[in-house]
Amino acid sequence: MDGFELTTQRIGMRAIRPSDRPAIESILGDREVMYAWGHGFSPRDTDLWLRENRRRSETPGFGHLAAVELESGELLGLMGLLWEHTPRGLEPGIGYILAKRHWGRGFAREGAAALLARAMELTDAPRVVALIKQDNLPSRRVAESIGMQPGESIIKVYRGTEMPHIVYFFRREGRLAEQV
């Protein structure tokens, strides 16, 4: 496919382009989409997020990618592999942020399943994680639907606010859920 690093039945994931900026700013600026952070991102917050994502992308295969609907070419959101700090140390993880208009259509599950499989290919880590805010029930359901299990609780501190998170995990010896 056209420049995609990862493709599923309905989603192509590729490097973020400068032309994606308006759509990304709209997604990250939506308070409902970003409620796990406690606020919609300002343009400056988006700049910082993009800069941090470029840093994360220095590890081949890691960092958020632009998730594009193959049928329409529309940017669905941002999905990718991340190195996450957990009580066990640095572990490979998956992350997904979708525009609100794409919620409930199975895109998060489809992308998360593909990312989980990719993380298992790229690393030899004993498990892959997803750090999910405790009250983020939709994201928790996505993680569980691809075979991840809830593990330890942790506190992430963001802008001075303590936010309880659950470390969802998938053990290497586990069975990967089928993609949608």
Give a brief rundown of this model.
The two termini are 19 Å apart. Helix content is 27%, strand content 35%. It is an alpha+beta fold and 180 residues long.
Q: Could you walk me through the main structural features you see in this protein, from its secondary elements to its overall organization?
A:
With 180 residues, the protein is α+β, with helices and mostly antiparallel strands. It has a domain at 6-126: Gcn5-related N-acetyltransferase (GNAT) (Aminopeptidase). The chain is 27% helix and 35% strand. It has four helices and eight strands. It has helices at 21-29, 43-56, 107-122, 137-145, and strands at 6-7, 11-14, 63-69, 75-86, 89-98, 127-133, 149-158, 161-171. The protein has a five-stranded antiparallel β-sheet with strand order 1-2-3-4-5, sandwiched between helices. A hairpin with a 3-residue loop joins strand 1 and strand 2 (11-14). The longest helix is centred in the middle third of the chain and has 16 residues, at 107-122. The radius of gyration is 15 Å and the shape is globular. It starts with 5 loop residues before the first strand and ends in a 9-residue tail after the last strand. The mean pLDDT is 92.
The portion of residues forming beta strands comes to 35-45%
N-to-C terminal Cα separation, in Å?
19 Å
Radius of gyration: 15 Å
Structural class: alpha+beta
Query: Could you name the CATH topology of the domain at 6-126?
Result: Aminopeptidase
**Average pLDDT:** 92
**Count of individual beta strands:** 8
Give me the number of helical elements.
4
Low-confidence stretches: none
Query: Which architecture of the domain at 6-126 would the CATH scheme give at its second level?
Result: 3-Layer(aba) Sandwich
Q: Kindly provide the name of the CATH class of the domain at 6-126.
A: Alpha Beta
Cα shape:
globular
What is the percent of helical residues?
A: 25-40%
Order of helices and strands: EEHHEEEHEHEE
Biggest sheet layout:
5 strands, antiparallel
CATH superfamily grouping of the domain at 6-126: Gcn5-related N-acetyltransferase (GNAT)
- Strand order across the largest sheet: 1-2-3-4-5
